[in-house]
Design goal:
The structure holds two protein chains of two kinds. Chain A is of the alpha+beta class. In chain A, 26% of the residues lie in helices and 39% in strands. Chain B is α+β, with helices and mostly antiparallel strands. In chain B, the strands form two sheets. Chain B has a four-stranded mixed sheet. Chain B has a four-stranded antiparallel sheet with strand order 2-3-4-8. The longest helix of chain B has 19 residues. Chain B starts with a strand and ends with a strand. The chains are: A alpha+beta, B alpha+beta. Chains A and B meet through strand 1, helix 1, strand 4 and helix 3 of A and strand 2, helix 4, strand 5 and helix 5 of B.
Chain lengths: 145, 213
């Protein structure tokens, strides 16, 4: 996958509060295509990951399965970066070679929510970088206007 | 710097022994009721190990006559990345102190930092003691990472005021909610151990009177 074909987060937003369900929305781009969706979740990270899944549902023909999510402090202090690691499996509906493999992504930031969504997209890119996933983004993409 | 009592005992240890290890008894607290509460919380996956100030507050809250110095009514965090712009994290907090409702907002380098700033902005109007309090560490532990984003998250916050240090924790499936619990415990503990002296200051321009009070 060429660098410009990789998924990247064009913009995203999430709200989370004490008396309301978390809501996330994302716009994802790859090359000349873009996808957008919103979702609710049991927390800010869950809502954002759900929005990414919804946005890419046609590209992946299903939802990737998140099997690991870890946060590690890189140093002490409130301004220290957190390292977020995620592990995913392909969608349960993926067939053949596309149904195999486990993929990881990681990102670090003082903003743990930002690190989480960036790590998730990195894991998705690792999966889509496989030869057997080649061309799916083009096939399911909505052209940038 | 003095460190508040450290608890490295098993979560299953006897409540009275654990309380004594933290340097205080159970005056005004029903030990049986407290023990049942702790067992229930531990059964839900909570552990007070390494969060002695939250454990102490748990005991104090069971004591007759304890009045929380504030109550968080509501909070909201917004985190966003706009096209070509820097990350933005903003929090709004509505908190009740002494019959008044304060509604504050603040930015931060992340949602927890913003939440801390907004909560502190409100409470410092009533408790000048908080001027000296700062958070110096923030740790996140995913209790069951295989449950992915549905996993319970345990947040531990280390705080200090120049004379002592203390640790608090919060746990929830939402990392922001877990952080809010740990933050609120840290500030409540600081106020409680200082004697909970309430001194209103001029900067209350953002306060409103709670209806019916």
């Amino acid at each position: 996958m060429h660098q410009d074909e990789a998924l990247h987060l064009a913009r995203w937003t999430v709200t989370s509060g004490s008396n309301t369900q978390s809501r996330g929305a994302v716009v994802i781009e790859a090359g000349d295509h873009h996808w957008q969706a919103s979702s609710q979740g049991n927390g800010a990270v869950d809502a954002l990951f759900g929005a990414v899944d919804a946005a890419l549902a046609e590209v992946l023909e299903g939802h990737p399965r998140l099997v690991g999510y870890d946060v590690h402090a890189m140093a002490e202090g409130p301004a220290a970066e957190g390292l977020v690691s995620v592990r995913i499996l392909p969608p349960a509906t993926a067939e053949g070679a596309r149904g195999t493999g486990e993929y990881e992504g990681s990102s670090r930031s003082t903003n743990i929510i930002a690190a989480s969504i960036e790590a998730y997209v990195e894991a998705l890119n690792a999966m889509l970088d496989e030869e057997h996933w080649a061309g799916v983004a083009d096939a399911a993409g909505v052209a940038l206007s | 710097m003095r460190r508040s009592g450290t608890n490295r005992k098993s979560g299953r240890a006897n409540t009275a022994i654990r309380a004594a290890q933290l340097g205080h008894g159970l005056e005004g607290v029903d030990p049986r009721q407290l023990s049942v509460l702790i067992k229930r919380l531990e059964h839900e996956g909570l552990s007070f190990e390494g969060a002695e100030a939250s454990f102490e507050l748990l005991i104090r809250r069971q004591a007759t006559g304890y009045a929380a110095p504030f109550r968080i009514i509501d909070y909201t965090c917004l985190v966003e990345q706009r096209h070509g712009q820097e990350l933005r994290a903003e929090a709004t907090v509505k908190v009740e102190v002494d019959g008044e409702t304060l509604h504050t907002a603040a930015d931060g380098n992340g949602p927890v930092n913003a939440l801390d700033a907004a909560l502190r902005k409100a409470l410092r109007a009533f408790y000048p003691i908080l001027d000296a309090v700062h958070l110096y560490d923030y740790k996140v532990r995913i209790l069951d990472s295989n449950a992915a984003t549905g996993a319970r998250t345990r947040v531990t916050i280390e705080s200090a005021d120049g004379a002592s240090e203390w640790s608090t924790m919060g746990s929830d499936t939402n990392i922001i909610a877990a952080s809010a619990i740990a933050l609120a415990d840290s500030l409540e503990y600081a106020i409680w151990k200082s004697g909970a002296e309430l001194r209103r200051r001029d900067e209350r321009h953002f306060t409103t009177i709670t209806p019916g009070r």
